[in-house]
Automatic annotation (TrEMBL):
It comes from the Bacteria. Belongs to the LysR transcriptional regulatory family. Keywords: DNA-binding, Transcription, Transcription regulation. Gene3D superfamilies: Periplasmic binding protein-like II (3.40.190.10), Winged helix-like DNA-binding domain superfamily/Winged helix DNA-binding domain (1.10.10.10). Residues 17-67 form the HTH lysR-type domain. The keyword DNA-binding applies. Coiled coil: none annotated. InterPro entries: LysR_HTH_N, LysR_subst-bd, WH-like_DNA-bd_sf, WH_DNA-bd_sf. This is LysR family transcriptional regulator. Pfam families: HTH_1 (PF00126), LysR_substrate (PF03466). The keyword Chaperone does not apply.
Amino acid sequence: MPNFNFASIFLKERAAVFLSLSKTRSFTATSRQMGLSQSSVSRIINELESELGMELMDHTVRPIRFTAEGTALQKFLSSETQYIDTYLQGLRDKNALKPRLRLGVVESIARILSQRIVSALMPDCSQISVMTGIAGYLLRRLDEDQLDVIICSDPFANRNDLRRTFLFREPSVIIAPDSLRLPNAPSWQDLQYCGLPIIQYNRNNSGGQLQQKLFNRLGLNFINKLEVDINALLLTFVSDGMGWALTRPTTLVQHPELISKVRVYRMPDPVAAREIYVITRLGELEELAARVTEIAADGIWNLIIPEIIRKAPWCADYMFAAADKTGVRKPVGKGIGSRLLVL
């Protein structure tokens, strides 16, 4: 750990220069140490003497020789500086004991939950950084030790070196332009012949992967002319009447400014759902990850779920959320949603 001279930050420039000069006994060395010219050092000492109304050194001899007053001032400043350094170093060491949090959050919930997590943990962490991205990208950053905790929509069940805690399950919904009139519970055939193409997530996106798994399983094929990689674009294009889409209700909650021209429909059975987990490397930062889970779960129950139910009340029976930091699943509604596929 570097040895910082904290006291110099708090001392006025004249006192700091004088203290340096008392140690170096050289205008040249002090000018280098303080990042000043020699003439500036001389001027500062002269101003200090003028302000105090006394000579601090004998200006007629070399090497530098301090007067009795200068020696007394040097001893006083040295003792005070040592006290300041000790005190401030203690504060720095105490702060360094706080954990650092490098958090990764999937884009679909980052806007809602990140601020809540950061605000709650800031007093307990020395530093917090937040990164967003798709699940695979966040996992790579976790493996590279660029992230400590990730919140993502893939549990990476094939990895036995990860610790995962359940956070949230949500169903998929159909969104379409307000100008397009569909049945309250449209069928895949209704969507296929509605007159608008599907707008899909890019296949590198976890939403695109979920959709492709579903369509492959059901043997569905839709005309696809437009792909996007983020929810904001998906909602923008749907609200502009360019097509319909399959997405998750958190998309709507995260971008309320974009849904005024969008209608939300129950998707045909089987309903595709996604689950979100808090993931860390096994055996690392378990207490911090548990705290992240607790804060995120509170945000889901109090911010996300009420908005989803307001926009799409039928989603309640398909949703589960963590009851506490351990990830125990608690149903939002009756938990009896009809045919559900967790992909």
